[in-house]
Design goal:
Elements lengths: L1 H17 L12 H5 L5 H14 L1 H8 L12 H11 L1 H10 L3 H10 L3 H10 L1 H4 L7 H13 L2 H6 L3
């Protein structure tokens, strides 16, 4: 009797977790959907059970990870701010050098193509980083102001 109750609880939790995420296969997003990608019933039952057992689907929906779309705790409008704050010194070095992976990612989050953005940012380094005490938020404000002040870049970056 105890085993049956345990299995029933696991199944209910798995199905409840699957009901939380639409737009994916039957199990939704989360670790289970990453491990069991086929849309066959047995794979979806395993995916839903995995999501329910480990409780990861709620975390994935909130953070936009494990195949869940972003827009939970970290809204897409804030992604650029979080990315910049987390990688600020690397971004500063790459802008000074004229490009790199962090600069390319910042360009994409700003709506720009990487090469023109990197060249523009390098040219305007002093405006973006006016002092050694410049914060990530200040740099982003300076970047937006500088981009909007240049009609070619504002158009190229879809601002």
């Amino acid at each position: 009797m105890m085993k049956r109750t345990l299995w029933l609880s696991v199944a209910v939790l798995g199905l409840a977790g699957a009901a939380q995420a639409a737009g994916h296969n039957d199990a939704g997003c989360g670790l289970g959907a990453q491990l069991f990608k086929e849309n066959r019933p047995v794979d979806q039952i395993l995916a839903a059970t995995t999501n329910g057992t480990f409780g990861n689907q709620t975390f994935a929906i909130t953070t936009g990870t494990l195949g869940c779309t972003s827009g939970g705790l970290i809204k897409s409008a804030k992604e650029r701010e979080v990315f910049t704050a987390s990688n600020f010194r690397a971004i500063e070095k790459e802008i000074a050098a004229g490009g790199g992976q962090y600069t390319a990612s910042l360009a994409a989050m700003t709506g720009c193509r990487a090469r023109p953005f990197a060249a523009f940012a390098k040219t305007h380094y002093e405006a973006l980083f006016p002092s050694a005490a410049t914060t990530p938020d200040q740099m982003l404000g300076n970047l937006d102001k500088t981009l909007l002040g240049d009609p070619g870049m504002a158009k190229a970056c879809a601002l």
